[in-house]
């Protein structure tokens, strides 16, 4: 095997170069994965354009990309889960396993999480990554490389539906038909939701939402959704959408804030109090990959439909800015 690989490295704001770097050495319980597809995410674009996300600041050169899939190319001495040649979807964060949050099963809240493409941990816009064997999940051949990579955003949708306790017959409102809204629609239907209303301001995305299972769609420039959802999955990050959505949720409803936008929200407090509305944020996900892979493998969720653009490792900058140039872009994938 070669000793070096190509990696797209962010050196500073809007400054990315492809460099040769050593192929990572897998630890005893790690597998070395040859990366076959990496989805680009709003957070990657944010790091590229601003050099930071809140408290996470890019101080040293960083490889972005956390939505990855690949093929096991080598295994550490104690690996028992995977053989060389196994196709895998990668869960990009490995927690400490021993803190109070990890022990409570909430490993997404582990303060010592090491997460791809979050400084100082490198991500997957490169040819090889080393991953803990328990965070590489075998995928069947019916799931494409790109769909395996997009099990990461799908996990966000699965987590949102779990937090909102979406189940058979639930009436759901989803605000925002970007990649996360579009996986949330499909997951909500797969979980049995009888009604999934989706709002956005982009007609092409609303069309796609309808094709992927939304029972109705509303362009909020033209009107407001009617009805009284039991669950709001806020996936737009737009304050107005969140506030209007919260107001529309009925008694004992649940509000799940997934989208990231501004940091403050004017909360319609009497509506929340008088109706005993539960409101929660979400931070990444925990224990979602088996469900995500099953949904993709069964066809209940179509991830390939989300891919609108493909780029090579030399074109990561174009991949990260595709959404800004083309309003019909949904998901850009990098194929190293
Ligand atoms: Zn992502
Ligand atoms: Zn922990």
Q: Topology of this protein?
A:
Elements: E1 4-12, E2 15-22, E3 30-39, H1 42-50, E4 52-53, E5 56-57, E6 62-63, E7 67-75, E8 87-90, E9 93-94, H2 100-103, E10 114-115, E11 128-132, E12 136-138, H3 145-149, H4 151-163, E13 171-175, H5 179-190, E14 195-200, H6 203-211, E15 216-219, E16 231-234, H7 239-248, E17 254-257, H8 269-274, E18 278-281, H9 289-298, E19 307-311, H10 316-325, E20 331-334
Bound molecules: zinc ion (2 copies).
Structure report:
Residues 12-334 form the Enoyl reductase (ER) domain. This is NAD(P)-dependent alcohol dehydrogenase. Belongs to the zinc-containing alcohol dehydrogenase family. It is built from 10 helices and 20 strands. It is globular and about 60 Å long. The chain folds into 2 domains: 4-150 and 303-334, Medium-chain alcohol dehydrogenases, catalytic domain (Quinone Oxidoreductase, Chain A, domain 1, Alpha-Beta Complex); 156-281, Rossmann fold. It has helices at 42-50, 100-103, 145-149, 151-163, 179-190, 203-211, 239-248, 269-274, 289-298, 316-325; strands at residues 4-12, 15-22, 30-39, 52-53, 56-57, 62-63, 67-75, 87-90, 93-94, 114-115, 128-132, 136-138, 171-175, 195-200, 216-219, 231-234, 254-257, 278-281, 307-311, 331-334. Strands 3, 7, 8, 11, 12, 19 and 20 form a 7-stranded mixed beta sheet that branches. It has a 6-stranded parallel beta sheet with strand order 15-14-13-16-17-18, with helices on both faces. Strands 2-1-6 form a 3-stranded antiparallel beta sheet, with no helix packed on it. By secondary structure, it is an alpha/beta fold. One zinc ion (ZN) is lined by residues 41, 43, 66-67, 152-153.
């Amino acid at each position: 095997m070669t000793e070096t690989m190509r990696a797209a490295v962010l050196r500073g704001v809007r400054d990315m170069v492809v460099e040769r770097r050593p192929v990572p050495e897998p630890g005893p319980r790690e597998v070395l994965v040859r990366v076959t597809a990496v989805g680009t995410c709003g957070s990657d674009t944010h790091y590229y354009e601003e050099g930071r996300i809140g408290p996470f600041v890019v101080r040293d050169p960083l490889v972005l990309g956390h939505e990855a899939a690949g093929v096991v190319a080598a295994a550490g001495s104690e690996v028992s889960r995977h053989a060389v040649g196994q196709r895998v979807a990668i869960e990009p964060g490995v927690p400490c396993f021993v803190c109070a949050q990890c022990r409570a099963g909430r490993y997404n809240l582990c303060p010592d999480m090491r997460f791809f493409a979050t400084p100082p941990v490198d991500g997957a816009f490169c040819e090889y990554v080393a991953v803990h064997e328990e965070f590489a999940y075998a995928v069947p051949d019916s799931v494409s490389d790109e769909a395996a990579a997009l099990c990461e955003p799908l996990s966000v949708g699965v987590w949102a539906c779990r937090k909102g306790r979406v189940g058979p017959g639930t009436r759901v409102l989803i605000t925002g038909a970007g990649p996360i809204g579009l996986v949330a629609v499909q997951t909500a239907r797969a979980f049995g939701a009888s009604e999934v209303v989706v709002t956005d301001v982009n007609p092409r995305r609303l069309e796609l939402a309808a094709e992927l299972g939304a029972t109705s769609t509303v362009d909020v420039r033209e009107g407001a959704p009617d009805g009284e959802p039991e669950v709001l999955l806020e996936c737009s990050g737009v304050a107005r959408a969140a506030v209007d959505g919260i107001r529309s949720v009925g008694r004992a409803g649940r509000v799940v804030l997934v989208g990231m936008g501004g940091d403050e929200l004017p909360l319609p407090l009497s509506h929340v109090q008088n109706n005993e509305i539960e409101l929660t944020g979400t931070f990444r996900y925990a224990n979602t990959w088996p469900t995500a892979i099953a949904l993709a493998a069964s066809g209940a969720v179509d991830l390939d439909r989300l891919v609108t653009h493909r780029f090579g490792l030399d074109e990561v900058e174009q991949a990260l800015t595709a959404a800004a140039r083309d309003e019909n872009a949904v998901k850009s994938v990098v194929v190293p």
